Description:
Blueprint: H1 25-29, E1 37-39, H2 42-51, E2 54-60, H3 65-75, H4 78-87, E3 88-94, H5 99-112, E4 120-124, E5 130-134, H6 148-161, H7 163-181, H8 194-208, H9 225-237, H10 242-260, E6 274-275, E7 283-284, E8 287-288, H11 289-306, H12 309-325, E9 336-337, E10 340-342, E11 350-352, H13 360-366, H14 380-387, H15 418-425, H16 429-447, E12 455-456, E13 458-460, H17 461-478, H18 481-497, E14 499-500, E15 505-506, E16 509-512, E17 518-519, H19 529-546, H20 549-566, H21 599-614, H22 617-629, H23 631-636, H24 642-661, H25 663-678
Parallel strand pairs: 1-3, 2-3
Antiparallel strand pairs: 2-4, 4-5, 6-7, 8-9, 9-12, 10-11, 13-16, 14-15, 16-17
Helix pairs in contact: 4-6, 8-9, 8-24, 9-10, 9-11, 9-24, 11-12, 11-17, 12-17, 13-14, 17-18, 17-19, 18-19, 19-20, 19-21, 21-22, 21-24, 21-25, 22-24, 24-25
Amino acid sequence: MASGGKGGQLSSPRYTNRLINEKSPYLLQHAHNPVDWYPWGQEAFDKAKKENKLIFLSVGYSTCHWCHVMEEESFKNKEIGRILNENFVCIKVDREERPDVDKVYMTFVQATSSGGGWPMSVWLTPDLKPFVGGTYFPPDDGIYRVGFKTVLLRIVDQWKRNKEALLENSQRITDALLTRAEVGIRSEESPPPSSEVMTRCFQQLSESYDEEYGGFSEFPKFPTPVNLNFLFTYWALHRTSPDGARALQMALHTLKMMAYGGIHDHIAQGFHRYSTDQRWHVPHFEKMLYDQGQLAATYAKAFQISGDEFFADVATDILLYVSRDLSDRAGGFYSAEDADSYRTAKSKEKQEGAFCVWTAEEIRAFLPDPLEGDSDRKTLADIFMHHYGVKEGGNVSPMKDPYNELKGKNVLIVQYSLELTAARFGLELDHLKALLAKSRERLSEVRAQRPRPHLDSKMLASWNGLMISGFAQSGAILGKEEYISRATCAADFLRSHLFDASSGRLLRSCYRGKDNIVEQSTMPIQGFLEDYVFVIQALFDLYEASLNPSWLEWALQLQHKQDELFWDNKGFAYFSSEAGDSSLLFRLKDDQDGAEPNANSVAVTNLLRAACYFGRVDWVEKAGQILAAFSERLLKIPVSLPEMARATAAFHHTLKQRGACGHPCLLSLAHRWLDEVCGKGEPLVRREP
């Protein structure tokens, strides 16, 4: 069983709750809390109504650092557990299993507080309507924050003294949220003009761009591949203009600075979730599958456009990490690795980044080799420490280390170019590269002896789809058949374990069980819109890489099922979840591209690709209806929907080709243009196998 939080490694549990029967690694992490947790379901809802109790809903995921902190501080606290058990029905939700539940209540938290995030803490009436919410709460009152215990007692008091007012307020909030969440076509709206949307999106990205370190904010900094893919598309449409050149420079510089930074794991490959600082230096150390899939494809495209082998090497680096550390032997991909781990096998508490960071003393001990012919007695450690910014007292600012977990430690970051480091030590460039590679390999062997972070071995259809696209696109661009084979293996896994052939439906998740056998939960979770959209995209990418028509046929089948389950016939566009779940207050249509692209954004391009392959003009029209439904947002703040913004260009060009040439030309001409603008098909630069 996975161990969450920062408790000791070996301890027999004093408490066991209903979560012990779940498959989710996140829920299992809380199965031995003194809190009487329920999973999201009818048993909990019935108890709340029968006993007229408020519901405390806690949402998170198994590799979430602050979720671990709140569990350790509050959910393992016996007194807090008593208050929760006596006054609330407590429900724990894995946001990765149930994105529908997460999005409904995150909409509330973001609308009523200064932000959102995880762990998400929301208090609901017995009929599931929210009235108070937040994210992480410390256990006790502090100078600047009210403690969790105080919040609980105040809510209990309000429920006893002002129940009717609280219920009325929750109804008003729910009504307001429903109105705010509505996305649809009003009157005779049409898809917005692509030139206006693309230009404004580029301008908004350009205004927030960090000229020195790349990225689009000061901090925290997320990789956001959707922004980079938009810039590639903008460049493709404006190759000879100054704006086009700037778009390409912004994307390539950001990718280089990310790869040089500590957000990139220089020893064990892959990318961490985000950087806490402007320089991409100190990350939150969890690694998410969805980042690896998108970034592999984006770095491969950067090589495709620029011809710079640096980007191809980073894509290869990401895929090595996923193949080694996030791959199930049955073919699927695991969800994530945690930020926290034990420093040594004897440690009693987990620390963030413990698996990844180094002291200068460790580097010197593991890389003592003297440089041949060096009169100054320099060692391999001297070269490595210089190049990767290792300092004797550690290189992490105390401002980025509030709990002193990284004090005296170093997060590796490329401090100097290879040329400058070679000049500093009087080395030939190839010799330096060999020495650094030797150093990284040796440190990788050392790291392999450390206790590994928790692995979330849940396998999600949507994230597996993103990773299949990463392997398929990289294989096609880099000329590596083994990547296409790995994508094929994963697609076979999806069809075997996350697809119900009898109903034609995707399932959301499956799990690595005992003896490493793939298991499904007793009541399988049905797939959501994002599962269909990302899997369909993956199947198109895999078809284009392999030319195996079976993937195209399955994509067509799933597209029909997606239309049946999620399409809004009144307001148009797709709902995130299907109808019929009475526990959901409303069905949402996401209106933002974030760490993952918005499902409706990808759906537009999927529909255009499907129309090209199968000659379905109605799918082009459906793509236009999605764009029309999001027209207001695309015209005002397209930077919130960069993936959909670039889809507007694909849509309008497809219509022009159709109008000029008629239906027979739609397939060949529109598909050819989609290849160029969206990065599909023949690359600008291609490695030969």
